[in-house]
Design brief:
With about 200 residues, the protein is mostly beta strands. The chain has a single domain (about 45-200), classed as Immunoglobulin-like (Sandwich). It contains two helices and twelve strands; from the N terminus they run H-E-E-E-E-E-E-E-E-E-E-H-E-E. The radius of gyration is 29 Å and the shape is globular.
């Protein structure tokens, strides 16, 4: 009889120990696969830019010079006595909001700075896709930047005149990949390099 009681007590102790495995001292269940950090989305942290900031990577340097809201914007060159004009041409009922930058390709070969992805949010409500305009110091428009050549670079969106009259604020969000590789199937925050730039009235 005593031997039977000893065996039963031993079994009860084993069951008790096994039921407590995987718990902490406060009797809370311990997760089997804890996640480090709360953001497990793989999104890039957006860097907030301001005037005179320089985006510096191992393939490009982009200097932020300022922003504007215009019906057109022109680059003019009078090299060799010849006047060359290029830029954003006015369209009926539309204006341009843009970040004016200079760009220098520090990679070993040509790059295509047009390959950025982004949007601008106007008055915290209206969203428009971004595009870019690139030209050299001779005002010659191009899609490609040669190594070590300084370029004029506009990041812009076309918006209705109605928003210009009631403009309060704008937030640009844009991103790009190494060497401006193709990124049109991504959001800005999915890109390796991602930025914001805010403007207020």
């Amino acid at each position: 009889m005593k031997k039977l009681l000893v065996v039963l007590l031993g079994l009860l102790l084993m069951v008790g120990c096994s039921s407590n495995s995987g718990t902490d001292p406060n009797n809370n269940q311990t997760p089997s696969n804890p996640v480090n950090g709360s953001d497990n989305t793989g999104k890039t942290e957006l860097v907030a830019l301001k005037n005179n900031d320089v985006i510096s990577t191992d393939f490009v340097e982009i200097t932020v010079e300022g922003s504007s809201l215009e019906d057109e914007y022109k680059f003019v060159s009078k090299d060799s006595g010849i006047t060359v004009t290029s830029g954003l041409s006015s369209k009926s009922g539309e204006d341009y909001i843009f970040i004016k930058c200079t760009l220098k390709n520090i990679a070993g070969s040509e790059i295509e700075p047009k390959n950025i992805i982004g949007k601008v949010l106007i008055n915290d409500k209206y969203e428009y896709n971004l595009d870019v305009f690139l030209c050299d110091e001779g005002a010659q428009p191009t899609f490609r930047a040669k190594p070590l050549v300084k370029m004029n670079y506009l990041i812009y969106a076309s918006i209705p005149d109605e928003l210009v009259k009631d403009f309060k604020n704008a937030k640009f969000t844009f991103g790009f990949e190494d060497n401006f590789e193709w990124a049109w199937d991504k959001e800005a925050s999915d890109c390796k390099y991602a930025y914001t730039y805010s403007v207020s009235k």
